[in-house]
Amino acid sequence: MLQVCLNGARDRSECEWLPVTPQQLGDAAAEAVSLGARSIHIHPKDEKGADTMAAVSVDAAVAAVRASAPGVPIGVTTGEWTEPDPERRAALVRSWSVLPDHASVNWHEEGAEVVADALLSVGIGVEAGVYSGTDAAVRLRGWPGVGRVVRVLGEVVERDPERAVGVAEELLRELAGLGGLDRVGRGVLLLHGEEGGAWPVLRVAAGRGLDVRIGVEDTLVLPDGRVAEGNGVLVRAALEEVAGAAR
């Protein structure tokens, strides 16, 4: 499965065509799905273009993406940069009226369990984000709800393309046999990198038959170093990499 991450915490200063408004997110989602993406991750933005968990923005973004890509699971961020107080983030989750299918929770962040419990309480699935170089895997193992996660997001934050591969392998060892899950593998673990590490880590994931992710959140360039001109070209390139790994 390939998940497309349409915008991330970036702003227009980094990428002039970044999808920001609900309509832009919907259009970008439709293109990515038409090319083979099977899951969508978005960061709803406020009127200033900053990430937000406010209901007015989340509801509008999720509704637009769902209308443009019906039947495709949609996820949103709950990163602490949107709201430092985990209790407040949990309250914001409960205020949403247009519910995403799942939301990512970064397990190294303070109060991750509070946010995850709030998501489950309203019927939203949890993608458990485990960043490399953190204690997130240990903390996730200790959460009583670990067996209910939609998937684990193995997130390699090393940006050097050569070092990222080793960091990815180490993260996979940390996640092996994660307690509470039937398995950590195909359909349960999505492994991805960022910036210079995005394509090398995608190849590691594809080579192991794991779910993969690509999009503007993770990288602005194609495997050959050319600047990408949209999420669509990134999705197309990622699927070519996956097909190459299968061969």
**Secondary-structure content class:** alpha/beta
CATH homologous superfamily label? Aldolase class I
Q: Which parts are unreliable, with pLDDT below 50 for 5 consecutive residues or more?
A: 182-186
How far apart the termini lie comes to 17 Å
The H-and-E topology, N to C, reads as EHEHEHEHEHEHEHEH
CATH topology: TIM Barrel
Strand order of the largest sheet: 7-6-5-4-3-2-1-8
Mean pLDDT: 94
**Main sheet summary:** 8 strands, parallel
| CATH domain class | Alpha Beta
Explain this structure.
- With 247 residues, the chain is an alpha/beta fold.
- Helices cover 38% and strands 15% of the residues.
- The protein has helices at residues 22-34, 55-68, 86-95, 112-121, 136-141, 161-175, 198-207, 231-246; strands at residues 2-5, 39-42, 74-77, 102-106, 125-131, 151-155, 189-192, 212-214.
- The protein has an eight-stranded parallel sheet.
- α2 (55-68) links the parallel β2 and β3.
- α3 (86-95) packs parallel to α4 (112-121), α6 (161-175) packs across α7 (198-207) and α7 (198-207) runs parallel beside α8.
- The longest helix is centred in the last third of the chain and has 16 residues, at 231-246.
- The two termini are 17 Å apart.
- The model is unreliable at 182-186 (pLDDT under 50).
